[in-house]
């Protein structure tokens, strides 16, 4: 596919931006139990539009809205019996957006998001390992059957639960993108995003030996991205990506000047690329404007290189 050819040719692959945060920005209420996981069922037209806007902005890969769609999360949200329908619909909407955009199926890849998000975003509600493994395998196989081109693991930030998700992704036989989330706790101390007691290095050392195809530094604050890419690069010879978040919780982006914010974001991507990133995009808080700005920035980078 296009993203694989670009990597082989030494070009930078453009990913999409935030989907859950973008649904929220466009007025879709988030579920306390499943975050944006119900949107394919409750607001399919908004989700379709978001995917189309990211493709129009130039994304080579879009991520289906299945981050909060494991059976154990949807059950907690009261939608357990719709598990299969919601996952299938989420993938269909991404594929439909590609079709409506007029792009060849080879040009824009659809990744299925797989996370170990606990119900209600509460780590005390993680299911026991055998249940988690069963449900994550079920979801990974369903995403593959629904037609995704890639399994994108997102917010892997521990060694136990993340390893179960990773095994489920690998069992599909599809390319596996390992998405890890880091936070800078001190000038040189990287931990996982949500857990101060988990060293980022330990997460990498647990998951990278399982042999993902790509490792993405994602859902990570901008100040930690370069250090996190360096930490991945010390352990992984394959392609590294970066799709950080922007501070949308404290500074709602829609109150800022979107163009200025997007251009500032895109300017930072040159630093990620200098550190070795070969795939770039955005996570929470980024919008189609951010991806369009990245698209322009990548053109400038390509022009400068010999
Ligand atoms: Zn995010």
Please outline the helices and strands.
Blueprint: H1 2-9, E1 13-14, H2 20-25, H3 39-42, H4 44-56, E2 61-64, H5 71-76, H6 83-100, E3 109-114, H7 129-146, E4 150-156, H8 161-170, E5 176-180, E6 182-186, E7 189-192, H9 200-207, E8 214-218, H10 225-233, E9 240-243, H11 258-274, E10 277-280, H12 288-304
Parallel strand pairs: 1-10, 2-3, 3-4, 4-5, 5-8, 8-9, 9-10
Antiparallel strand pairs: 6-7
Helix pairs in contact: 4-6, 6-7, 7-8, 11-12
Bound molecules: zinc ion.
Zinc ion binds next to loops.
Largest sheet: 8 strands, parallel
What do we call the CATH homologous superfamily of the domain at 2-152 and 160-169 and 250-301? Answer: Homocysteine-binding-like domain
Shape: globular
Small molecules in complex:
zinc ion
Give me the CATH fold name of the domain at 2-152 and 160-169 and 250-301: TIM Barrel
SSE run: HEHHHEHHEHEHEEEHEHEHEH
Query: How far is the first residue's CA from the last residue's CA?
Result: 25 Å
